[in-house]
Amino acid sequence: MGENRKGNWWIWKVFWILLGITAIEVFMGILKVNEKLPEAFVYDTFLGLAWITHTFIILTLIKAAYIVMTFMHLGDEIKSFRWTILLPAFILVPYLLFIIIVEATHNISL
Amino acid sequence: MNEEILDEALVKDHKPAWRGGDLPFKTSYGKMMMWFFLITDTLTFSAFLAAYGFSRFKFADIWPVPEEVFTHFPFMKGEHPLLFVALMTFILIMSSVTMVLAVNYGHKMQKNKVILWLSLTIVGGTAFLASQAWEWGHFIHGDKGAIDTKSEYVVHIAQGEKLSSIYDLMELDKYSYNQDQQIQVESVINKLREKSEYNIRTANKTYLSNEESINYLENNATQTILGADLIKNEYGHPLFADYFYFITGFHGFHVFSGVVLLIILLINVIRGTYERRGHYEMVEKIGLYWHFVDLVWVFVFTFFYLV
Question: Which residue of B has its CA nearest to A5?
Fold first, then answer.
């Protein structure tokens, strides 16, 4: 990326990608509420989440990666710094989600 | 390399204090500290969203559907699910773009262009805050109204298999109705007797027939709810509104702080502080914070409004 910093074209490229993904998400959300999506996609679950939810999460992570790596220039920092910033989140956030979601879906039967 | 030569090399390059020298990560102190702050903030927001996920899974069958709650757009009648939040997302992404442009021109030491793009970023941030205020206003005022029950799970008015509103049933204008006046449960039940096309939808989204509805309300209804506060809301589980106020409020406060920082930054740019300093790194540091705010919104948008 470093050499391309001279112009602004890369900023607008990322902008269109972010906008496009957001548009897809909103479109899917509207289709979902109008029940126009295949039932298997909306109701069948994988690892406790519906397929549509997985899709939303993946699209969100792509957006997040673009913002962090290009807009925030983390992709241009040196490798050790990049991982110093990313690893705490990569380890702690999935761990937190794992224990909390497992706990939430736990049925207490007395 | 033995210790002596290493120490000598450090002294020669004027790098004091231990092995990393001045720039262990080859990035400036200020930028590094902003990143470290952002890590902590990431974990804070993760904890909020995880807590939201917990409640949502715990009460999965009665949790409100966000696409039914956030359906309004200024100056437009009818239902437009997600449209307004999409606009807010667009505003924030756009302000992120103007921020990167400001950082980019800062690197090139072009003061006037930095001023231009920073000002536009402030406009974007303010527009976002205004949108959020509108959204909150709408959320507090409510839209369809609901009836609370003994189980504390609210039920909604429907027409057949389609969600309707308490205002339609009672023939009231929802925009001018004074909410201090309670709508009595008895009058709702009487209206249901009069108008057999209306019925209720229970908290777990099953539609009852008109007769069943009247029966259900006579046995379970306690009061009508219009709008939302921290204790009760018309959308469903009380925690839904609590999380809405807390998470979007905390994010909104971040945006507000960001706008304040940007204004201070803009004043300094105009006064030529960074021109004299020889670099516009401060624009970059505030920029990091601003992008982070956008990043958080991307997640709030997905987990609060879409999923």
Answer: B104
Domain boundaries, chain A: 2-77
CB contact under 8 A, B32 and A81: yes
Residue A109, both tokens: 């039967």
Cα–Cα distance for residue pair B95/B259, rounded to 1 Å: 11
pLDDT tens for each residue of B185-201 = 888 888 888 888 899 99
* Ramachandran angles phi, psi of B259, nearest 5°: -65, -40
Chain B residues with CB under 8 Å of A53 CB are 307
Q: Residue B26 is which amino acid?
A: K
Number of domains in chain B: 2
Write the pLDDT tens digit of every residue in B207-222: 998 888 888 888 888 8
Q: Which residue(s) pair with A49 in the sheet?
A: A46
Domain range for residue B286? Answer: 29-142+238-306
Instruction: Give B47's contacts in chain A (Cβ within 8 Å).
Output: 96
Query: Domain end: B164, B194, B225, which one?
Result: B225
The residue of B57, B101, B283, B288 whose CB has the most chain A CBs within 10 angstroms, and thus the best one to mutate to test that interface, is B57
